[in-house]
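Annex B. Sample input.
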Amino acid sequence: MKPRATVATETDRAADRATGPIGDGGSGDSRSGDSRSADSRSADSNSTAGDRDTSRKTRAATRTRPAAGGITWRLRLHRDRTLILMTLPAIALLLIFNYIPLLGNIVAFQDYDVYDLGITGSPFVGFDNFTRIFEDYRFWQVLINTLVIFLTQLLLFFPIPIAIALLLNTIMSARVRAWVQAVVYLPHFFSWVLVVTVFQQMFGGAGLVAQWLREHGHEGFDLMTNASFFKFLVTAQAVWKDAGWGVIVFLAALAAVNTDLYEAAAVDGAGRWRRMWHVTLPALRPVIALLLVLRVGSALNLDFEQILLQRDQVGPGASEILDTYIWWTGIKTGDFGYAAAAGIFKGLFSVAMVLGANKVAHMLGEQGVYSKK
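Annex B, continued. Sample output.
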C-alpha cells in the first residue's frame, strides 16, 4: 500500500492533467499581459511623440506671438480700421483748432507786431512780457478779484445741483420729476444776454421788484449797479442758468445706486435722512470729487460774456476778472504779447490747481481725475 500523502500527490497531479485545457488559459493570461505591456509601450511612444509635436507647436507659436502677449499693432490696425476712420475727422478738428494754435504762444516771448512784422519778423524779447505782468499791480488785483468770485460761486453754486438731484430722487411721481427737471434745465439754453436782461427787468432800478416796493411805500433798490453785491449777483445768475445742467450728472450717478441698499437700510430702521446720509451721499462721493477737482481747475475760467455785459454798470473795480482784463489791456489795445503771456500764466495756474485738487482727492480716498498708481 502506498502512503496517504503519496496518493494525494498523485491525485493532485491527475487533476492538473485533467484541467490542462483550462490551464492553457493561464498561458493565455500571460500572453494577454504581454500584449497589454506592448500596448502600453506603444501608447507611451505615441504620447511621447504627441508631446514632441505639442512642444514644437508651442515653440512655433511662441516665436510668432508678440512679446507683450497680445496681437501685433498691424493686426490691431486692420481689426479697428473702421473705428479709426470714424475718429479721423474728430482728431483732425482737435489738431486744427486746439493743438496747432498752441504754436502761436510764441508771441508771448516776442514784441509782436500783428500788422507789419508778424510772428516770423517780430523781435524776440524773452520773458519781458511776463515781467510786465508780474510788475503790474492791477494784474494782481484782478487775479484776487477773480478768485473771490470763484470762491463765492464754489460755495454757493456747487452744492445746489447736488441738492436738486437729491430732491428729485425723492419724488415718487415720474411725471412730476420730469416736469421739475425740465423747468430747471431749460435756462441752460438761454444766452447770457437774455439772462442779464431778465435779471435787469427783475432786480434793476426800474425792475418789477423795485416797482412793487415803491407801490407799497418802501424804498426801491437797484442790485444791477451795486458793486458790493456783484459777486452774489453773478452767482445767482449762474445758478439760474446752469444748475439744471449739473443735475443731470448727479441724477445719472443716483440711478446707478443699488436699491437693495435702501431696502436694507429701511429694514434696519433708517429713516429718509439716514438713508440719504449713509447710502445716497456715499454713492455720490466719487462724482462730487471729480467735478470738484475740475471746477477748481477752472478757477480762472469765469464766464467772459456774463462779466463783460455788466462790467460798465458796476465798474471795473468790482467786476474785472482775468479774462476781461486780458481782453481790455491786451487784445483791445493791440498788445498781443502781453495778452499771450497772461494766457500762459492762466493755463499754468489752472494745471497747478488741478494737480493740487487731485492730490487732495487722493488723500481723501477718492480717485479724482486720474487714479493713483
